[in-house]
Write a structure and sequence with these properties.
141 residues; alpha/beta; Rossmann fold; 7 helices; 3 strands; 52% helix; ATP binding
């Protein structure tokens, strides 16, 4: 079972319990917020994303989002902080978020809010997607 698979399963259970859930790839979420900012409707879009009981942000760190994206993500996380639940899937440890966001201060502020009252689930082992490759081509055991 992988990160995204686990996040989706939790989201499905939340929907079954009558909760509103949104699932977005981190890069796509940041693009959406940047577009809203450019069109002058950022406040409305932040409210849209902040509304759901559970927001799943998938693959944080797969693509660097830069300082502007970090600022927008910080605004969203701050809006949801202690009000709504957020799941973030990532291969990047919190110590590496500064590189992803292009700003250590923003990374620290986001991590501070995300990690307060959080549960961290660390998944180790081989990638499920590589299970059918011969052992010598997997690279790691």
């Amino acid at each position: 079972m992988g990160k995204t698979h686990l996040a989706v399963a939790i989201g499905i259970e939340a929907v079954r319990a009558g909760r509103e859930v949104r699932f977005m790839d981190c890069a796509r979420l940041v693009e959406d917020l940047q577009d809203a900012q450019a069109r002058g409707i950022l406040k409305k879009r932040l409210k849209y994303h902040a509304h759901s009981k559970l927001l799943v942000i998938d693959e944080l760190g797969y693509l660097d989002i830069g300082e502007g994206g970090a600022d927008l993500l910080f605004q969203l996380i701050s809006t949801r902080y202690e009000q709504r639940s957020t799941i973030i899937t990532t291969n990047v440890g919190i110590g590496g978020w500064g590189r992803v966001f292009g700003d250590d201060v923003a990374a620290s502020a986001i991590a501070d809010r995300v990690c307060h009252h959080c549960h961290v689930i660390k998944i180790t082992g081989r990638s499920y997607r590589l299970k059918d490759l011969p052992r010598e081509r997997r690279g790691t055991e």
